[in-house]
Amino acid sequence: MLTETTTTLDTPATIERLNRHLADALLLAAEAKAWHWSVYGPTFPELHALFEAQAESARRGADELAERVVQLGGVPAAFPQEWLARGALAVPEAGSVPAPREMLRHFAANLDRIIASVREDIPRVDPTTADILTDWLRETEKNRWMVTATARE
Questions:
Q1: Which CB contacts under 8 angstroms, 24+ apart, belong to 36-43?
Q2: Whole-number pLDDT of residue 94
Q3: Whose CB among 39, 120, 126, 135 lies 3.0–4.6 Å from 47's, allowing a Cys bridge?
Q4: Residue 76 above 90 pLDDT?
Q5: Where are the beta strands (DSSP E) in 46-129?
Q6: Integer Cα distance of 17 and 132 in angstroms
């Protein structure tokens, strides 16, 4: 017999936390795609590929977060206005095309925001959600390493 997923913790608060992380993941994916399309210069091939990989990673993380929201009976933050309202990332100015090194710095700072936020929420959720957040944290920390290593002179 199928039953709804239940937890011993505050499910509405967990859903809201997940939706905040989902918003950040989708904002991060959008930023990565913007830099993927706009990067220029002698390191274009490497950065073009790096930002594509970052966007794909963020989209995979977003999918896991959104599916957990649904499993808990919530509605995922699926639309850009929700991402902007719930997300905590610094959103680049529309139409801006910074230098490639600045793209990397801005992106790394947003990865840092995600890492701090996820670390804060892991102890506040049920074990299954904590596992999903831990996977997202692991992936985000690895991505931060890739981005900062690329930005290093």
A1: 38/97, 38/103, 39/100, 39/103, 40/97, 40/100, 41/99, 41/100, 43/100
A2: 86
A3: 39
A4: yes
A5: none
A6: 12
Copy the structure tokens of residue 5. 């997923």
Task: Give the tokens for residue 10.
Answer: 């505050």
Angle in degrees, CA 122, 84, 97, rounded to 5: 110
Place of tokens 């210069």: 41
Q: Can you tell me the mean pLDDT for 63-83?
A: 97
| Cβ-based neighbours of 28, under 8 Å, separated by 6 or more | 54, 58, 89, 107, 110, 111, 114
103 burial type by CB count under 10 A (0-12 exposed, 13-18 middle, 19+ buried): buried
What is the structure's pLDDT at 126?
Answer: 96
